[in-house]
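Blinded run. Sample ID left blank on purpose so nobody reads anything into the name before looking at the predicted structure. Input follows.
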Amino acid sequence: MEKEYRALEVEDKWLRNWDERMYYFDWKSNKPHYIIDTPPPYPTGSFHIGHALNWCIIDFIARYKRMNGFEVMFPQGWDCHGLPTEVKVEEKYGIKKNEVEREKFRELCIKFTEENIEKMRATTKRLGFSIDWSKEYITMYPEYFTKTQISFVRMFRNGQIYRGYHPVIICPRCETTIALAEIEYRRGKTKLNYIKFSEDVVIATTRPELIPACVALAVNPSDRRYQHLVGRSVRVPVGGHEVRIIADEAVDPSFGTGIVMVCTFGDRQDVRWWKKHNLELRNIINRNGTLNELAGKYSSLKLSEARNRILEDLKAEGRVLKQEEVDHNVGVCWRCKTPVEIFPAEQWFVKVDKEKVIEMAKKVKWVPEFMFDRLLTWVESMEWDWVISRQRVFATPIPVWYCKKCGKIMVAEEEWLPVDPTKQKPLRNCECGSSEFEGEKDVLDTWMDSSITPLVIAGWPETKEYPVSLRPQGHDIIRTWAFYTILRSAALMNEIPWKEIVINGIVFGEDGRKMSKSIGNVISPEEVVEQYGADALRQWAASGVIGEDLIFSWREVVAASRFQQKLWSVARFVLSHISGYEERDEDVKSLRTADRWIISKLNRLIATVRESMDNYRFDEALKAIRGFLWYELADNYIELVKGRLYSGKESNSAKFTLKYVLDRVLRLLAPITPFITEEIWSRFGKGSVHLQKYPEVEGRFIDEEAEKAGEEMKEILSAIRKLKHDKGLALNAPLRKIIVFTHLELDTMDLEFATNSKVEVTKNLPKIKEEVRRLKPKFAILGPLFKDRVKDLLRAVEGLSDDEKLKLTKEPVIISIGGEKVELKPEWFEVEIGRSVEGVEAERIETSNSIVFVLC
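Blinded prediction complete.
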């Protein structure tokens, strides 16, 4: 083996040589099935570091489960449809989707998506993910979106999907509805404007541009300042229409003036009041964020422009009494970050049965457990059903037509699917007899595609196995992907979608901030791999704690690379010594103390790592393996047995041990670092390390007595090394003799080889002669105590006998100064004691269970 580990060369070699078929899932296998509902990323850019973290976690699980005898399905999907792709295509080609033919725009989206899938697919392969590419799915292809349409049809037939008129969230930039779960909130500053409606009615609002949409003013019924106003009408200063003043307990009397403007719609509270008090609907906002004709002279202005113009006019009329800067929480589109608006429209909805969703979610094992609370909080806060129709082009068509004659809705039959109602007509006439239809132009929310991923990979609608085993995902999409999947699985199967859900965090830059191109703290997986290889990146990913956000760390990547070099060096040493060695039964029987110690420690390591891997604590597993290999195997065991490896027959037990330990360390590490473990395995094992069994604890090798003795030998060896270093001796410098006084059964052979010295282990304390070489007074203590008598005290100390000086190292001694008795205390002196054993000067070292005398 080469001295230096060349990660990039090795990884390139195995990327070319691995047979992807060894990861293919077989439905007919008799092994227990383990099916992973892999997140399908948006193929709108590159496979970023957050993806890398998530897929590393999935791959750790997949490889670990395979090595434990499971038939694992690790599919790869691509969530293609939706706004992100449309925005990217518009940017790339300098077009707007409404300016080109619908089908042409779809073709451009498909082309763009296929190009990105190819790039992202290449990255997943480079990172060594054991994906079953025979189970790849692409949501924009008919094979997949047919199933999305089937799910729509079935839920419509079951009354779980309906069309209705209701306020919905719109993104003016994207000109489409979005779901509540797609809103992000951003803190900022804005102006709170105090505006006079009449002499005794002053309202405070942060949205003066919505005054034309005012349909009522509201006060709290307990607010005595305004109780006399309830029921009165007042004229709106912009628009001139009159509105009633109503009473509602949801009004906060301490905010602004305590009089609130109710508009249709400024926020969700406006929607509640509109419904509760049966108020008029005055919708003044167009889908593109401009004002319509109801806004009068402000029509066609953008919202920000209208705000400024309306404030200018109100100031000119003397109606703006004051303005205050306040903190403001603004809802924005999670894709383009544009502030969202509420817009009443006819849309398609999925009924949200909150109790059913919570009931199902409770049956799933959540890792970590507290992530369930995030879902629960979200579900309980929901006030509206899920709006699933979108005013876009690149998405799954809604399989619906409207009869031009009677307006009746016709939903496609399953056997007609897939269908695009804008291009195809239904295969039967309407009940009224008409054959003229208008196809639905709205398309489905992309979450309608991705929320059936567990069903699709399980073979639905001819489901082979359900629920699937695992959903791994980030905590940032609990309220979307996790929620929608549970909802849809309950609706379509009356079943949970998966038995477990494992939630990981998101990745932050080294500066602790979210990665952003504008900040300049983005790190790509390719950047890491090109320098240190995929295994180093995978170790960084393993260092994170499930459920917690993870900071990208070059330091951790470098440490991972160094560990790989250490593993390589250990393997190189081991393989050089076991070449030609054939294991024999007597080798196991003749194991020496150090052998039994390291094998016992290894089996305890196996138990620890198994527990950690079973609980998705990859950080704990990797830390334990690293510590064992570096500090137990390399620093101590190998140092203890190096000499024995060159001593003929006695070397066989060490060779057996080295082979046994390396074999299991490689298998323990294989799920996390597949490349280096495969390379080393190929040099002494058969087949692929990834097709081997994961190590199991062998109870016969757990040996507590050997562990105690081994730890003691390790401690003694460390102490001898330190002594040699302190005395300026080479580590291989021979010592005259080492005498170890201990109750433990220690193996002198390995200690003698490791210290290059004669070692005697005894249960009888040897005869030791001790004398005080130096008794140095601590003047900082003696000065304040004895002042001008210090010299007299020192003369008295000099006059002590050798036995008295030795006694003073452990207990007080009485002396006389000028006729006065003084008790000398050990802590007043720095003491240097000389010892000799068998007439030779010796150093005394104390370890946990031994007293060691080193005869120099």
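Unblinding after everyone has recorded impressions. The longest strand covers residues 183-198.
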